[in-house]
Specification:
The chain is built from six helices and five strands; from the N terminus they run βαβαβαβαβαα. Bound molecules: 4'-phosphopantetheine.
Length: about 160
């Protein structure tokens, strides 16, 4: 039986930490679906279409990585897609409490779905989408922390004065 994993998140925007986890997941599982949550935030910086486009641009060459969107309960989506595993990245102890709560709640809702935690490479352990947006908006350099397309789109947003 092949193993299908779902890597859910807001991805606003996709960071190199996410890219690292997805690449690791693609090596470990037969297929991994990057599932972008619709309406994660009321006013995301990147629209759903932009987030999908960025992820497809980065993972277009990976035949076992699929980019999709979902709304509603994550476990319902995972079941609908006939996946067995939820992948989440763990960066630091500070992530643990929330991730632990989510994993146990999801386990209670659908006991057959397993959550697997993966560590990103050390150099990405401090990156978050929130920090990327804040640092870039305030004029800081995020080169090497996000895919090039994200950097380009962030620059466009500054030019358009969206951020
Ligand atoms: O990238 P994020 O914002 O940390 O991802 C959080 C996400 C999307 C995994 C979580 O908010 C989620 O699963 N939302 C869907 C609604 C749901 O199932 N909520 C109950 C989780 S126990």
């Amino acid at each position: 039986m092949s193993t299908l994993a779902v890597y859910p998140g807001s991805f606003d925007p996709l960071t190199n930490g996410h890219v690292d986890i997805i690449s690791r997941g693609a090596r470990l599982f037969d297929r991994i679906i990057v599932a972008i949550l619709v309406n994660a935030e009321k006013s995301p910086l990147f629209s759903m279409e932009e987030r999908v486009e960025i992820a497809r641009d980065v993972f277009g060459q990976h035949r076992n990585v699929e980019i999709d969107t979902f709304a509603g309960l994550l476990v319902d989506y995972v079941e609908r897609r006939k996946a067995q595993v939820i992948v989440r990245g763990l960066r630091a102890v500070s992530d643990f409490e929330f991730e632990f709560q989510m994993a146990l709640m999801n386990q209670r809702l659908k006991p057959k779905i397993e959550t697997v935690f993966m560590m990103p490479a050390e150099q990405y352990t401090y990156i978050s989408s929130r920090l990327i947006k804040e640092v870039f908006t305030l004029g800081g350099r995020v080169h090497g922390l996000v895919p090039e397309l994200v950097e380009q789109r962030l620059r466009e947003k500054v030019r358009e004065k969206v951020v």
